[in-house]
Design brief:
The protein is an alpha/beta fold. Helices cover about 15% and strands about 20% of the residues. The protein has a single domain, classed as Purple Acid Phosphatase, chain A, domain 2, CATH 3.60.21.
Length: about 240
């Protein structure tokens, strides 16, 4: 199983965006709803391969950096999962696109910020790119705070967004505070981050926050969130020390 470097996974698989961790470019930050951005040529994400490899269905890292392992029986039980995030319209940049297409995987997870605003045109572009990735059987994505500038607008409800993504086919699954089951693995996706900029925000330590995370089912195997876990690289703008 593949996980991006920098992930900490306590007893269950977890896949997260860390706003810059894992080689994916994060946007410029500002206080306004539409912050300033770098020039278009600076927005291409980087991709360093190989990603950390785990050759067993139930091998992962624990929160303290150790590991746990449950044998997976037959070799064909192995599921290869690749996680990317914060591509900000740079998904089709030649170097990044080439690197992704060299990986033969089962599930590709995009943990949010696939665009700069989440506009219909940007959504269509990233969906077209995901459709073209025949080297993955399933492509699962969530929105991030920057996608939420438009996608989290009052004129859109979650059902409208779901319809926007659901007609795509090609194994593409959009998750917004909901689960899917792929290859027997329960995957839950949540786009929300602590209040920062853009959309899909929540106030830290509020009642709504507790209600939001209480929605995660107990049988969740992989949690995909755009924000990092509490107290793990969540106090800095780039997810680094």
């Amino acid at each position: 199983m593949n996980y991006s470097s920098g992930q900490r996974i306590p007893n269950r698989y977890s896949s997260q965006s860390s706003e810059g961790v894992g080689g994916c470019l994060n946007p410029g930050h500002g206080a306004s709803r539409r912050p300033m951005y770098k020039r278009e040529e600076e927005l291409s994400p980087t991709c360093t391969m190989p990603i950390t490899m785990h050759h067993s269905h139930f091998t992962s890292n624990t929160i303290d950096g150790g590991s746990f392992h449950e044998p997976s029986g037959q070799r064909n039980d192995v599921v290869k999962i690749v996680c990317i995030s914060d591509t900000h319209n740079g998904h089709s940049a030649p170097h990044f696109d080439h690197q992704i297409r060299q990986i033969k995987g089962d599930i590709l997870i995009h943990a949010g910020d696939f665009s700069n605003h989440g506009s219909p045109a940007e959504v269509e572009k990233v969906l077209s790119w995901l459709k073209s990735l025949n080297n993955f059987e399933y492509k699962i994505l969530i929105a991030g705070n920057m996608d939420g500038i438009d996608l989290d607008d009052a004129q859109y409800d979650s059902e409208t967004r779901r319809r926007q993504f659901s007609h795509t086919g090609s194994g593409i699954i959009y998750l917004e505070n909901e689960s899917c089951n792929v290859r027997g693995i329960n995957i839950y996706g949540c786009p929300y981050t602590p209040k920062f900029c853009g959309g899909f925000q929540y106030e830290r330590h509020s009642r709504n926050t507790r209600e939001l995370w209480n929605m995660i089912p107990h049988n969740c195997d992989i949690l995909v969130s755009h924000g990092p876990p509490q107290d793990i690289f969540d106090q800095t703008s780039r997810g680094t020390i």
